[in-house]
Amino acid sequence: MTANENIASPGPAGNDPRGGLFKAVELVGTTLAGVRPDQYDATTPCPEYSVRDLSNHLVSVLRRLTVLGAGGSFMSVPHLAADVADGDWATVWAEATKEFDAVWSDPAVLGRMIQLPWGPVPGAVGSVIYTNEFVLHTWDLAKATGQSPEWDSEMLAAPLAGMKRAVPAEPRGGQVPFGPVVEVPEDAPAIDRLVGWYGRRP
After folding, report:
1. 9 domain residue, yes or no
2. How far apart are CA 127 and CA 125, in angstroms?
3. In whole angstroms, how far apart are CA 162 and each of 51, 78, 132, 147, 173?
4. What pTM did the predictor assign?
5. CATH number of the structural domain spanning residue 34
6. Is there a domain that residue 164 lies in?
7. What own/partner pairs with CB < 8 Å and gap ≥ 24 does 77-82 have?
8. N or C: which end of the chain has fewer CB within 10 A?
9. What is the residue range of 63's domain?
10. Does the pLDDT at position 2 exceed 70?
């Protein structure tokens, strides 16, 4: 149940959606730092991922996004960062963030075409796709480890605006790795509406 790596583009992003992306990256690091050793084997809302697996996946996604932003290949980065020792995720994340910042702080990345498995998209659109990826998996990790992140409105705005274009309510399953939409009240917090659309139960 990965977030958006195999899903259609959410459509045009705003003029510069990187503010939300940078905040999402920061929040992942904070959440990884809050994982305790006794939680590594705990299950997450993504049934195929333990806390350990999801932590390794998040590191891999950040590395992949850095490679993509620099014009590299999606497939050059493995799905899980198997080189990271248990408990080192936050440290490795902080180091990987330096490389990510160097690539994604360049405004030219917004117009650069990045090559995703379903086709190329501008960096501006890729930024929204991966903000969504990080937000959903941060929620998964927080849920599994009893954390309560602070969900910044700028971080959630673009994913929330594009979620129904990115992943329609039907079909789900198979090539669309999400469960059925979980209905939440229209006045529910933004994070609840976002995760509910992607099949999580807030």
Report:
1. no
2. 5
3. 28, 27, 10, 26, 20
4. 0.92
5. 1.20.120.450
6. no
7. 80/53, 80/56, 81/56, 81/57, 82/56
8. C
9. 18-153
10. no
